[in-house]
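Hey, can you fold this one?
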Amino acid sequence: MNLTVVDHPLLKRDLTILRRKETPHGQFRKTLSDAAAILAYEAMRGLTMEAVPIETPLEASTGYEVADEVIVVPILRAGLGMVDGFVRFIPEARVGHLGMYRDEETKEPKDYYSNLPGGIATARIFVVDPMLATGGSATQAIDHLKARGARRFTFVCLVAAPEGVEALQEAHPDVPIVTATLDRELDDNAFIRPGLGDAGDRIFGTNP
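Sure. Predicted structure:
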């Protein structure tokens, strides 16, 4: 299974804050960004580095710079809450956007927006969305990117359901998944249990 569940004390703490139903949206948004940074740190371990000559205050030495072009692609709208966690480490990263919503009757994702930077064929792409539930949006997002020439992916989420992991890996076995937790199951409405509710509503304060 091409799945990494990141085990970190601070991530466990942040996930607890995010799960609590009484957490206000401002704290939810900040905590999600902090949790995304921990996930980003782990997800970017495989970046290609290049050696560069540098001068310390005492002598010549060798340093390292990121050689990969990095593109972060949030799945709108909830994925926006994870972008800052990535760009705090790679400020020069470019950000694409894929808009999808879930049809509440069929539970299937529907496209409504795409805006991607150039160079995706050679870039390291991190597709981000807080929830991997049915796997439909993640699969469709990667389908979309592959159709435009992209080849080097990691999917990063905060909470994953076994059904979503299975669906994404069946469709795209070449795409690693990095998450903070693998939850128990999906319910009849395709919400992750125990989960944390609707991440988009909780990020933006649009929940009832």
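The first helix runs from residue 9 to 19. Let me know if you want another pass with a different chain boundary.
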